[in-house]
Each structure stands twice: as structure tokens, then as C-alpha cells.
Design brief:
Helix 2 packs antiparallel against helix 4 (62-89). The two termini are 31 Å apart. Helix content is 73%, strand content 0%. It has one domain (16-89). By secondary structure, it is an all-alpha fold. The longest helix has 28 residues, at 62-89.
Length: 91
């Protein structure tokens, strides 16, 4: 077997530390929680029942805010934390 192939395979299947996996999973899990919340309580989504709702009701829809926070965490915060955790292991 070619050693280059084995080396590449070893890098691909290398286990990631639990901290990294947890940090990377927080954003998608938060988004999933927001979607489940929106499905479980559709009356919280104002655009489905717009009668008698004000501007604030349109602006702050809790399940959608939870999804937005999950997207923000996954895109802006988690990559920096993961990079710091990976840099911490290197001597």
C-alpha cells in the first residue's frame, strides 16, 4: 500500500477533540431548536396570523430570532473559537 495514501487517510479520519465538535454543533443545534419551536408553536409566527399585530410583533418573532442567533454563532463566532482550540494543541 502506498504510504502517501495511508498518510492522507490517517489525516482524514483523525479524531477531532470533543470541545471542537461541541462548539461546531452548537450553531446547527440552535437553528434546529428554532425550527422545531416554530413548528411546535406556529401561533408565535406573526406572518401566519397578522391580524391586530404591531411593528414590534413583526420585528421580534422568537423562533426566527433563535434561528438567526444559531446562524450568527455558526458563521461568526464558532470558527474563531475552533481556530483558537486547534492552535492551543500545537506546541
Amino acid at each position: 500500500m502506498d504510504t502517501e495514501l495511508v498518510g492522507t487517510l490517517e489525516r482524514r479520519i483523525a479524531r477531532r477533540p470533543l470541545r471542537v465538535v461541541v462548539i461546531e454543533a452548537l450553531g446547527p443545534l440552535t437553528m434546529l431548536a428554532g425550527v422545531i419551536w416554530a413548528i411546535a408553536q406556529p401561533y408565535r409566527l406573526v406572518f401566519l396570523h397578522p391580524e391586530g399585530k404591531g411593528f414590534y410583533d413583526w420585528l421580534a418573532q422568537p423562533p426566527l430570532l433563535v434561528v438567526a442567533v444559531g446562524v450568527f454563532f455558526a458563521a461568526a463566532i464558532a470558527p474563531g473559537i475552533v481556530e483558537d482550540l486547534r492552535g492551543e494543541r500545537r506546541p
